């Protein structure tokens, strides 16, 4: 999948631009250069989705999820350049046809999964 900024919502692009600034995400030291400001911090990314992107759905992530690849690319930059070693993702998406008996965390049709990104 080719990553293009035109494939994501402008509000997500704006958020990334807003927090990816000097004195928020990094600092610049005349002697040492660029220094990340996220050392020993935990980043949590929450994905709220209106579609089921599971592999067995009619909208599998490989063809329909344009959000996660961009955020993961940004997380990689944050880890490598800005010192954020720990990132966790939380996915909230509909689980159509599943109820509490199916083990969906009892959220009346919505499932929440936490996946550490190491």
UniProtKB/TrEMBL annotation:
<dbReference type="GO" id="GO:0016655">
    <property type="term" value="F:oxidoreductase activity, acting on NAD(P)H, quinone or similar compound as acceptor"/>
</dbReference>
<dbReference type="InterPro" id="IPR003680">
    <property type="entry name" value="Flavodoxin_fold"/>
</dbReference>
<feature type="domain" description="Flavodoxin-like fold">
    <location>
        <begin position="5"/>
        <end position="78"/>
    </location>
</feature>
<dbReference type="InterPro" id="IPR029039">
    <property type="entry name" value="Flavoprotein-like_sf"/>
</dbReference>
<protein>
    <recommendedName>
        <fullName>Flavodoxin-like fold domain-containing protein</fullName>
    </recommendedName>
</protein>
<dbReference type="Pfam" id="PF02525">
    <property type="entry name" value="Flavodoxin_2"/>
</dbReference>
